[in-house]
TrEMBL record:
It comes from the Bacteria. The lineage of its organism: Bacteria, Pseudomonadati, Pseudomonadota, Betaproteobacteria, Rhodocyclales. It comes from Pseudothauera lacus. Belongs to the Nudix hydrolase family. NudJ subfamily. Residues 4-133 form the Nudix hydrolase domain. Signal peptide: none annotated. InterPro entries: NUDIX_hydrolase-like_dom_sf (IPR015797), NUDIX_hydrolase_dom (IPR000086), NudJ (IPR033713). It is an enzyme of class 3 (hydrolase). This is Phosphatase NudJ.
Length: 151
């Protein structure tokens, strides 16, 4: 039986505070890489719910999504995977001190856009910087653009 191709649906949280962006440093098959708090959509959750969950699991920060920054399609050059990323912009509403971070996450850190631009070889994908650039360019779309229907 032939497998039907489908993209991997992911979410990301674009969080800027005092001119710095919340990122994670994580272990990948290519070594330590930088990414927004991001991950896969899980069964039964909305895209917005997934972004909140991923930000908390990866950074211990409570993320409040306020807008959709963009939707990004990226086929990985290393294989047959294509990612469909929904990037949400928003703010932090506190930190859960002492919370353990997801496996593979080394730390959460804040970086300026210039610091991020200076190290593209450390990015998990080209989407990391693109989401920041789109945020800085003022890309903001209403959350009601996305409809989630429960079964």
């Amino acid at each position: 039986m032939q497998r039907t191709w489908k993209p991997n649906v992911t979410v990301a949280a674009v969080i800027e505070q005092d001119g710095r962006f919340l990122l994670v440093e994580e272990h990948t098959s290519e070594g330590l890489r930088l990414n927004q708090p991001a991950g896969h959509l899980e069964c039964g959750e909305s895209l917005v719910e997934a972004s909140v969950r991923e930000a908390l699991e990866e950074t211990a920060h409570r993320f409040v999504p306020e807008c959709l920054v963009g939707v990004y399609q990226w086929p990985r050059p290393q294989g047959d995977l294509t990612y469909l990323r929904f990037a949400f912009g928003g703010r932090v509403d506190g930190v859960e001190a002492g919370r353990c971070l997801d496996d593979g996450i080394v730390r959460a850190l804040w970086m300026s856009a210039d610091e991020l631009r200076a190290c593209p070889q450390r990015h998990r994908s080209p989407l990391v910087l693109q989401c920041v650039e789109d945020w800085l360019a003022g890309q903001r779309h209403a959350l009601d653009l996305i409809r989630h229907y429960h079964a």
